[in-house]
Write a structure and sequence with these properties.
The complex is a heterotrimer of chains A (111), B (155) and C (531). Chain A is mainly α. Chain A has helices at residues 6-26, 30-53, 67-98. Chain C has 21 helices and 2 strands. In chain C, α15 (364-399) crosses α17 (416-430), α15 packs antiparallel against α20 and α20 (495-513) crosses α21. The longest helix of chain C has 36 residues, at 364-399. Classes of the chains: A mainly alpha (111), B mainly alpha (155), C mainly alpha (531).
Chain lengths: 111, 155, 531
């Protein structure tokens, strides 16, 4: 029986982050690109929580020490929601001006 | 902040690595900290069984008389119109956006509520209170803005 | 953990700006929509614009002109708050989550000043386009609040949240004008790459947190010192290295350093010109401030291998690449707005030279001074330049296209003052004496030589000489190419823009001719990162 340790979470976080980054670069649908960004943020959340749960530093240098990871995740979730809202609004604005959300077609700003 | 989740002390959050791993007769490891959730599992199973049972007995025991009208798609009693795959109105997105923002921002209220008593013990009670009040006032201003802009009207 | 009410005074500029933004939002929605606008006596050009080009005119629009003045007043208040604390000793706020020191105050003052002038530029622009809404000024105030906080933050979580406050408001501002495809597309590109950069920064923050057990920069510095002596937890040196690389990459996006610059031209081109000016000045100031804080306060320990001698190399290469490609890519641009975008990339390179010079402790005070001088002078110059562009662009914004060099031809005949101002700003961007740009480049390169980075300084001088070509081309078009199209500058609503341009020009000349008086003002900031 294998015990799930910090390394598993960290590796999973890294994989999810890479998948998200690849999604941002490769996917064409604007909404999927937005989802990929959110995936990256959630991968970071996983990393933060893994480090809070299995701290490398035994005596956290300041008061509250390891709890900061949880606090960070709260703030990331809240900001990610705001980001998603602004992102969706922008995608709707783009859609209204050209009735497509295919990223490849966004070309009116090329020189 | 007095409650610090440091290793060794147990702390505010139970630590998984200190929880004993017990192997039962079949050799399947079971985390002892999952046992409090057993009643929930039982509840879920019961709910599932109930669903299946009710559907099953209704099908087997109930009489069935098939008519044309019964076979037609049901749209709240009015005649069916349009394509089921029509585009959603942008209003749905707007409501979804507003929901996400207000829903997620309220996530901060829970830890605040849970910790307010401790913070008061640390002499930070009023500070925490006004901090949350100013946060909620900002949210309220956002709500008033959305309201006055007419984003909550479904027309 | 304790709370000190005085901590709120330390972030006073950000508080003033946020409250102002909320006030503006409320005033916008409670504005009576039935009250008819008090029509100002329209100039001939404006009347033509009203009848011929500007769509969606309705006489029942409420008068929203007070909003610009309210926003400008709030910005002035923020500027006053930042300047009034300038000489005070540095204090740590909110248990080390933020810092009120000379460095942060100067950056906050720069941001508030940029906001103040941008409000004047935006007033005429938006009124002419009939696009004044409270949201515009509220969003600029919110983003300025984020910038002020960013300049003072010393905790990675606070940095992330203020970064998002700044960026989210700017994404929305880019899409503010809803005519044509360009603004929305620019906003989308900015949004995607900006949030990508935020995510990269955040991953770096998570790794730094893992290696040191804290998100406070002071604790990270302690962790770096510990790792240097081999006393840290296993693998923390590697984690710290990955962390500083990701944090730097995230901010390289924000400051538009090559190779993370692809979004800049499109975004600067597609956004409304007043927003572009504010973005160029404000985001640069705030992002450089926080980059310096992370690198110097967080990872600045000289005993460590990933300390200055590690990141200094990365920054030196980034600076060299950015200066080279920024100037090179600006050359073929026909649109002045796009040219200014590439020029902004090039200027990020010069600023990175100052950051690299901060890697060596002895040259740190001078490099800090140089960085702040450069940020302020670039801010004044670029807002002025985009202010002129805003006047030219109005017409194109209606048609949904960009500007072209030919629309600048013969500007000196019709608007000699405007032409002179534009030439001054171009000379300052190119770094020609006696302008602010020259003194800024001088102080930065001097600190680089002091830090032993002479080759980088020489490379910087060479690239800025090469940059003269495309800046002077604009001056040539303005003064020497005969007028091609008669209608290149739409008239009307120029008074506020003139005030803004005049103040920018005065600042540029003042900083160029009497740099000593400005340096004396920011003297208290140069010691912010110790010796």
């Amino acid at each position: 029986m294998m015990t799930i340790g910090p390394v598993h979470y960290l590796v999973l976080g890294a994989i999810l982050f890479t998948l998200g980054a690849a999604g941002v670069v490769l996917r064409r649908n604007a909404v999927v690109v937005l989802m990929s960004v959110e995936l990256m943020l959630n991968a970071v959340n996983l990393t933060f929580l893994a480090f809070s749960r299995f701290p490398l530093v035994q005596n956290a240098p300041m008061q509250g020490g390891i709890l900061q990871g949880h606090v960070a995740v709260f703030f990331v979730i809240a900001t990610a929601a705001a980001e998603a809202a602004v992102g969706l609004a922008i995608i709707i604005a783009v859609f209204r001006s050209r009735t497509s959300i295919n990223v490849d077609e966004f070309d009116s700003l090329k020189f | 902040m007095r409650r610090v989740d440091t290793p060794g002390t147990g702390g505010y959050f139970p630590r998984p690595q200190t929880a004993r791993l017990k192997a039962n007769d079949e050799g399947i490891a079971m985390d002892s900290y999952l046992t409090p959730y057993l009643p929930i599992l039982v509840l879920l199973l019961l709910a599932g069984v109930m669903c299946v049972a009710i559907t099953f007995f209704a099908t087997v025991l109930g009489p069935r008389r098939i008519t044309n009208i019964k076979e037609a798609a049901f749209e709240c009693g009015s005649p069916t119109t349009g394509d089921p795959h029509a585009r959603h109105s942008v209003k749905f997105f707007l409501v979804a956006l507003l929901f996400i923002v207000f829903d997620v921002e309220s996530v901060f209220i829970y830890p605040w509520g849970a910790l307010l008593r401790d913070l008061n013990g640390d002499g930070l009670g009023w500070f925490a209170y006004f901090e949350m009040m100013s946060f909620m006032a900002t949210l309220a201003i956002g709500l008033v803005y959305v309201w006055r802009k007419g984003a909550l009207e479904w027309t | 953990m304790t709370f000190n009410a005085n901590d709120l005074l330390g972030v006073l500029p950000a508080i003033i700006l946020s409250i102002g933004a909320l006030l503006l939002l409320m005033s916008e929605v409670f504005l009576s929509t039935t009250r008819a606008a008090a029509q100002a006596p329209a100039s001939p050009g404006e009347r033509v614009a009203q009848t011929a080009t500007a769509p969606e005119i309705s006489s029942t629009q409420p008068d929203r002109r007070y909003q610009a003045w309210l926003a400008a007043g709030v910005a002035a208040l923020g500027l006053w708050a930042a300047l009034s604390q300038l000489g005070d000793p540095a204090i740590s706020l909110f248990n080390g989550a933020a810092m009120s020191d000379g460095f942060g105050r100067v950056v906050a003052a720069t941001v508030c000043g940029a906001l103040l002038i941008s409000c004047f530029v935006a007033f005429g622009y938006l009124e002419w386009l009939r696009a004044t809404r409270g949201e515009f000024y509220a969003l600029t105030l919110f983003s300025a609040a984020g910038m002020c906080l960013l300049a003072q933050a010393t905790d990675l979580i606070v940095i992330f949240v203020s970064l998002e406050v700044m960026s989210l408001a700017l994404y929305a501002l880019c899409a503010y004008l809803r005519r044509g495809k360009r603004p929305a597309e620019a906003a989308f590109k900015y949004f995607i790459l900006g949030s990508f950069a935020s995510a990269i920064f955040l991953y770096g923050a998570a790794l730094g947190f893992g290696a040191t057990g804290s998100t406070r920069l002071a604790d990270i510095a302690a962790g770096v010192r510990l790792a240097a002596t081999g006393g840290g937890p296993g693998g923390s040196a590697g984690l710290l290295f990955a962390s500083v690389a990701l944090l730097t990459a995230g901010f390289a996006f924000k400051v538009a350093a090559v190779p993370f610059h692809m979004w800049v031209p499109d975004v600067y081109d597609g956004a409304p010109a007043p927003v572009t000016g504010f973005m160029a000045a404000g985001v640069k100031a705030a992002a450089f401030a926080v980059l310096v804080r992370i690198l110097v306060s967080g990872f600045g320990d000289p005993s460590s291998s990933i300390g200055p001698h590690g990141w200094q190399q990365i920054i030196v290469w980034l600076a060299a690449l950015t200066m080279f490609f920024g100037n090179l890519l600006a050359v073929p641009q026909r649109s002045v707005k796009r040219m200014l975008a590439y020029s902004s990339i090039a200027h990020a390179g010069y600023l990175l030279v100052a950051v690299a010079a901060m890697g060596n402790a002895p040259s740190r005070p001078d490099a800090t001074q140089g960085l702040l001088f450069y940020l302020a002078s670039y801010g004044a110059t670029v807002i002025g330049a985009f202010g002129v562009v805003a006047l030219i662009e109005r017409k194109f914004a209606l048609a949904g296209t960009g500007d072209d060099l030919s629309s600048w031809a013969g500007l000196s005949e019709r608007h000699p003052a405007l032409a002179a101002a534009m030439s001054l700003f171009m000379l300052s961007l190119a770094g020609v004496p006696p302008t602010a740009g020259f003194m800024a480049k001088l102080t930065v390169f001097r600190s680089a030589i002091e830090a032993g980075l002479a080759p980088l300084a020489i490379f910087g001088v060479l690239t800025s000489v090469a940059g003269l070509y495309y800046y002077l081309r604009v001056v040539v078009y303005v003064y020497m190419v005969p007028e091609g199209r008669a209608d290149s500058v739409p008239g009307g609503r120029v008074l506020s823009a003139s005030i803004a341009l005049a103040s920018c020009a005065l600042i540029v000349l003042w900083m160029g001719i009497m740099p000593g008086s400005f340096s004396a003002m920011i003297q208290s900031a140069s010691g912010s990162f110790g010796r």
